[in-house]
Amino acid sequence: VEPPEAYNVGGDYVCKLRKGLYDLKQSAKTWHDQLTKDLEKKGFQELKKDPCIYTKSGVILLVYVDDILILGKEADVDKAKTNLAELYEIKDLAEARFYLGIEIIRGRRTRQIVLSQQRYIQQVVRRFGMKECKPVKTSAQGKSRCETTIPATMPEEVQYRELVGCLMFIATRTRPDILCAVRSLSAHLHDYTAEDWRAAKRVLRYLKGTEDATLSLGDETKPEKIEVYTDASWADSENRRSMTGVCVYLHGALVIYYSRRQKSVKTSSSEAEYVAVAEGFKSLRRLQQL
């Protein structure tokens, strides 16, 4: 880095960093390496298939930067908190109610955990001036971009990228019902038009009418097994690349889902379906190895 203004070293010199500084591109990796080293000293083991999960004798740590969610029995959780307090200055927020903007609702009688982003959706609706908008029943109109008349490019002051980013955060956390629509919007972040802007606001109108929808995890009435569902939409876009959709259920709870464009053009619907099945098996295998 360049020397501070008050520090005159003379000549064309720079300073060599001996520690990571906040907001540098390597800072996240430096912090993760240090955290892993410290947790290993306390007996925690990092999962090979997910480097943000650590385990130790029945306790699971879920790590997002410096926000840590601890899962386990009460006595084991208390021990884990003590271990962390010996390493860092921590802030204990007691039982988890919110984590990364997601509300956690525990149904102890039904042994279910319900995830909700209702408050976050309300914040996004207010942020983009849609509080008084009229809700709609679907997140998209069913037309692809190439089937509509593309109007002139929108001006820079339109917050299209910001809105799509908020919608993507919602879609990939608790709302798989908007994932396909948001994926389509995210494909035009550099060439968005008035049609795309209206489509993005339509998703927001749909969320306003369904803000109380939740994602439930755990159901004792469901069989204890993993179920994988895949589908493909063959050559349904202007570039003729097919779409893959995957849903993975664990004990009846949706734990993995995504919708993405296939990497190459497929010559038949059967080929596209086989690719989707292969992607589904990859997700299944990853879940089995956790």
TrEMBL record:
Residues in domain Reverse transcriptase Ty1/copia-type?
3-138
Instruction: Please name the InterPro entries in this protein's record.
Output: DNA/RNA_pol_sf (IPR043502), RVT_2 (IPR013103)
Q: Name one Pfam family in it.
A: RVT_2
Per the record, the coiled-coil ranges are none
| Superkingdom, natural source | Eukaryota
Q: Which PANTHER family match?
A: GAG-POL-RELATED RETROTRANSPOSON (PTHR11439), INTEGRASE CATALYTIC DOMAIN-CONTAINING PROTEIN (PTHR11439:SF440)
Spell out the protein name for this chain.
Reverse transcriptase Ty1/copia-type domain-containing protein
